[in-house]
Structures are given as structure tokens and as C-alpha cells.
Design a protein that fits this description.
This protein is mainly α. The protein contains three helices and no strands.
């Protein structure tokens, strides 16, 4: 997406570092800490990826709504019979009908 803020981390690089950490030799005390840290980092990475995908979906929805609003305003200005039709396409109701 053109206007999506870039993700300033590399999930692949982080996963590679975690794999490297898992393979490295560690004392028992360090091994327990490393395992806990790796689990936390994996959870954080998963959450960042989920939130970035949610942001992308929200931005797409917002862009579609803005385009529909602009189309409806233009249609109203042009005197079209049903300018809200552009908005109805973006707001399907729970039963498949329109909520506008």
C-alpha cells in the first residue's frame, strides 16, 4: 500500500537471530533466560505483524470511505437522483441490506 507507514523492523531478520540464539551454546542460567526472552520476542513480533496488518486494513477502509464520500458529494452537486448510493456500497448492514 502506497500510504502505509513502513514497518521499521525485519521480521525475517529477527526470526533468524532468534534461531541463531537457540542454536548457540549457553550456560544453564543463560539458557533459561534466553528461552524466556525468545518467547517474549516472538510474541511481540507476532503482535507487531498483526497490528501492522490491522493498520493496513483500516487505512484501506478509510480510503474507500473517503472516495465514496467524495463521489456522493459530487453526485449531489451534479443533481443525481440518489447520491447516497455511493455510500451504501461501503456500509452493508448486518443482514446484507443497507444501513443508510
Amino acid at each position: 500500500m502506497r500510504h502505509l507507514p513502513p514497518l521499521h523492523i525485519s521480521p525475517d531478520a529477527i526470526n533468524a537471530r532468534l534461531a541463531s540464539l537457540a542454536k548457540s551454546r549457553k550456560c544453564k542460567k543463560c539458557k533459561k533466560r534466553a528461552i524466556r526472552a525468545a518467547a517474549d520476542i516472538t510474541a511481540l513480533l507476532s503482535e507487531v505483524s498483526r497490528l501492522h496488518a490491522a493498520l493496513a486494513a483500516a487505512r484501506l477502509d478509510a480510503a474507500n470511505l473517503r472516495a465514496a464520500i467524495q463521489s456522493a458529494l459530487g453526485a449531489a452537486e451534479d443533481g443525481e437522483a440518489d447520491p447516497l448510493a455511493y455510500l451504501r456500497d461501503e456500509f452493508p448492514g448486518p443482514d446484507g441490506g443497507w444501513c443508510l
